[in-house]
Amino acid sequence: MIDKLLIATNNKDKVREIRKLFESSNIEILTLKDLNIEIEVEEDKDTLEGNALKKAEEIWKIARIPCSADDTGLFVDALNGSPGVYSSRYAGENVTYADNRHKLLHNLKKVADGNRKARFKTCVCFYYDENKYLFFEGVCEGKIIGEERGEKGFGYDAVFLPDGFNKTFAELEIDVKNRISHRAKAFEKFKEYLTEFNLPE
Ligand code: ITT
Description:
- The structure is a single chain.
- By secondary structure, the chain is of the alpha/beta class.
- The chain has a single domain, classed as Maf protein (Alpha-Beta Complex).
- It is 29% helix and 24% strand.
- It has five helices and seven strands; from the N terminus they run βαβαββαβββαα.
- The protein has helices spanning 12-21, 48-63, 97-107, 174-180, 182-196, and strands at 4-7, 28-31, 67-76, 83-84, 117-129, 132-144, 160-162.
- Strands 1, 2, 3, 4, 5, 6 and 7 form a seven-stranded mixed sheet that branches.
- It is globular.
- The model has no long low-confidence stretch (mean pLDDT 95).
- The chain binds inosine 5'-triphosphate.
């Protein structure tokens, strides 16, 4: 089993969630900040897998320790799967989470309640040695509501109602989101795998 894992992301909100997901494990989570690595990997692939692999590989090449990157997207049925892989720049380059949410709500304004199904998908790439990597996926089904609700979470959380709940991800406690979310599901599979995993000699 590995004892350290580098989380290849510049997104502080993700780091907070991932740290919590590994709280009960014996794996020490390191961030790019901990290792003074300053890099912005361009996400120019058209799949979550492509972007997750690109982020993990570029950072492994610098740090040379096992690392994971996740790429996540929100896929809305009524918008033919948009914003999808382009979730972080739905409203344009250098936009805020709020700009993206506003554009999404605007584009769904005329869509009836029964036709607002959506899902978050996370693809985690675990890159542990030169050209050696694996993917883990997690999906969370739900719908996009008509207005923002809640202050917790990040990104599209305030407009996403996960199936089986009357609260958005931004109204639910982080521990609840961390039990049912796309990222939680992907990282649970990953953690399970890591308990059996031995680095090649
Ligand atoms: P890194 O690539 O540095 O990891 P990022 O913010 O670019 O960070 P992604 O490309 O994976 O991350 O995510 C795309 C966007 O999807 C992100 O900017 C958020 O707006 C949104 N997002 C991701 N995970 C989310 C979550 O759990 N809840 C709500 N929105 C989320």
